[in-house]
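[audit] Reproducing an earlier prediction to check determinism. Same input, same settings, fresh worker. If the tokens differ from the archived copy the diff job will pick it up downstream; this log only records the rerun itself.
[audit] input (361 residues):
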Amino acid sequence: MLSAMESTDASTLAAAVLGHFGAAVAQAEQPFVLGISGLQGSGKSTLAARLIDASRERGWGAVSLSLDDAYLTRAEREALAVAVHPLLRTRGVPGTHDLPLLASTLDALPKASPGKPVPIPRFDKGRDDRYEPSSWPAIAEPPKLVVLDGWFLGVEPAADAAALDQPVNALERDEDPDGRWRRWVDARLGEYLPVWRRIDALVLLRAPSWKIVATWRADAERPLLERGEPGAMNGAALSRFLQHYERISRRALATLDDKADFVLRLDEHRSLIAPSLADRTVIVGARPARDSFSRRGPNLLLMASKDVARRARSYGRVAGSEQGGVAVARVGPGAAEACRAQACVGEALVAHAGGTRAFGR
């Protein structure tokens, strides 16, 4: 199993992601926007950081940008709380982000230069407000890769407005009895679609369920509580906080698998789920519909030990990389069958449209 939160394992996942999208990134004439979507606590920030490191090792300029960095200021959210609904004091839901700031940053990055560097917004969650713009990091040249992450990246408004009628938790029942807040939030979600359309490829860190998010967040809050950090939440406060995000999180779980270009399925320990074969073999999935290497038919992504991947590549590699003791090879269906016939049996797995297939006994 690979932990999405551990630096070493996140580096392995980053190698797999870049092994899949590397050719598309390299060939892109504009900065390639790679989205990472995952519920709270799934490891988005850790994976994004490792992707930046891995990109720079390839000689690519890279920058990370999070929806969390584009929150409205505390004063702006206070104004929304007064004008629209008190629940909008809490950051995070659609409608609490500065979309013009996010869009203008993405617009400016291809034109970044030493004479006109692009500041990257940053938000101080401890103060619940933006850092002063003078302290934002600045990018002085166009990056090859932009990693954009967010907990509801790619989610769309409700397909049926009637689905918003019934509350999904105590917060909606008691603090939004007429549904005004949740309808306003869902309407604002439509304003994020132009941002979603700017994403060249979407990676999904797929949580096993909504309920596990509370455990993941409690794990993160525990050391803050022990240190007496301002804003650290106890169990009751955390439960109420998470209910702000439950409705859209459940929609993400129900809809994003089919929209994502690359799905990493996590278990309750934030470990990558893979069929049980050799310990050294892990599989990650790919969608061929938007395949960046071949549009003539589905290619397969093989992630295995170096020895196995070398053999697979010898039968018809499309692209591959070796990092951190793990090799990633992309092979066509014919090459995969050759691999199966030529001693990869029991050692290799491939992911393809419709699920995961094991080459095993």
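[audit] rerun output stored. Observation attached for the diff report: The chain is about 35% helix and 20% strand.
[audit] end
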